[in-house]
Amino acid sequence: MFNISICYSSDVTDVEIRHLAALRAVAEEGTFTDAAIRLGYSQAAVSQQIAGLEKALGQAVFDRPGGPRPVTLTPVGRLCLRHAEVIADRLDQLHADIDALQAGLGGRLACGTFQSVSVELLPTIVGRILTQTPDLQVRVDEADENEPLMASLIAGDLDVVFLAGPVVEPRIEIIELGDDPFVAVLAIDDHTRDMKTYNPAWLNGVGIIGENGGSAQIMIEDGLRSLGVAVHYVFRTNDNGAMQAMARSGLAPAIMPLLAVDQSDKQVRVLPLAPAIPPRQIVLGLPRQGLRTPAATRFAQIAVEVGRSRLSGQGAISV
Fold first, then answer.
1. Any residues with CB less than 8 A from the CB of 182 and at least 6 apart, and which?
2. How many CA atoms lie within 13 A of 161 on its CB side?
3. pTM for the structure as a whole
4. Fewer Cβ atoms within 10 A, N terminus or C terminus of the chain?
5. What CATH number has the domain spanning 12-102?
6. Which fold has domain 182-278?
7. What superfamily in CATH does domain 105-170+284-312 come from?
8. pLDDT tens sequence across 37-75
9. 113: which strand partners?
10. Hey, which residues does 179 pair with through a beta bridge?
């Protein structure tokens, strides 16, 4: 009885792209000489690449009959060629994707934002950029606070972010789009029908509808307290529509950023605060120039146009 044990040493991590390119060329041309002509190498260089591949695999990839006859792939060679073709296709796709990315025509664009911007600004911005670059894939991530959005931008997980300012962060570029004033949203009744402004002092002993935390709500609380208002919540939600619905029902006034208000709602009064509290700024955050994709740059250009146009008219509240 004979025990035959054959052990081949292999380490596929030693396989290089140039090895696989040589394998494809030889397999498709049939000879090392023709493969060398196709690749622009010497025949010795092609033989060296195939030898390196066989060493890494621990197996021969070609059966070499000698003379002018073409070489043929071994079973391991055929298996390796299938993987080589997949890798080559992925490299071709990588090349095409990089070209599209650099041209601003494709790839992905991940935008960080918050609810009111998503509703009021993003539809126009995204519609315009996709008209220009239809192969661009846009993803939107929402957060109620600036910190997670800025952290994701700095980490490279987001390409551009909308933030509630003012914002100071030296690691990113900040572009101010405009101010978003805070307003009172109230049910229409005999008391509110003729109001032109809303005095925040009237909130003392009444309570307000507000958000569960978030950058805007912190600004509202700080602003109201600076005017001597003892902030007391009767209802809190992070849904802008629910806040407005509760105000419409007469539960309590809602103090909201104007961008978060549906001003087409004829069943509520939207009144400027007098005295006013400092407005929030709507700002755009971008990576530094060297870390920015062309698509992010174009998105920012459109966002500046749309944001500044939309926000510039916010001081005129219909009363």
1. 219, 220, 223, 255, 256, 257, 258, 273, 276, 277, 279, 280
2. 30
3. 0.64
4. N
5. 1.10.10.10
6. D-Maltodextrin-Binding Protein; domain 2 (3.40.190)
7. Periplasmic binding protein-like II (3.40.190.10)
8. 888 889 899 889 899 898 888 889 898 877 667 888 899
9. 142
10. 281
